[in-house]
Amino acid sequence: MTNGAGSRQNEPIPDATVARLPVYLRGLVELSDD
Predict the structure, then answer these.
(1) Burial letters for 9-24: b for 16+ Cβ neighbours within 10 Å, e otherwise?
(2) What is the pLDDT averaged over residues 5-32?
(3) Which one in 8, 13, 31, 32 has a CA-CA gap of 20 to 30 Å to 23?
């Protein structure tokens, strides 16, 4: 488990995750606005 997490941290962030970050953050803002 520790090995998998360690190697995963060293990998570059996938483009899909980067593309989803703004959408995720926008959702959080909308929720807190309610």
Answers:
(1) eeeeeeeeeeeeeeee
(2) 81
(3) 8
pLDDT reported for residue 26: 92
pLDDT of residue 8 exceeding 70, the answer is: no
d(CA 2, CA 22): 29
Tracing tokens 């060293």 back to the chain, one arrives at: 10
**H, E, C per residue of the chain:** CHHHHHHHHHCCCCHHHHHHHHHHHHHHHHHHHC
What is the domain partition of the chain in residue ranges? 2-33
Find the helix or strand (DSSP H, E) in which 5 lies: helix 2-10
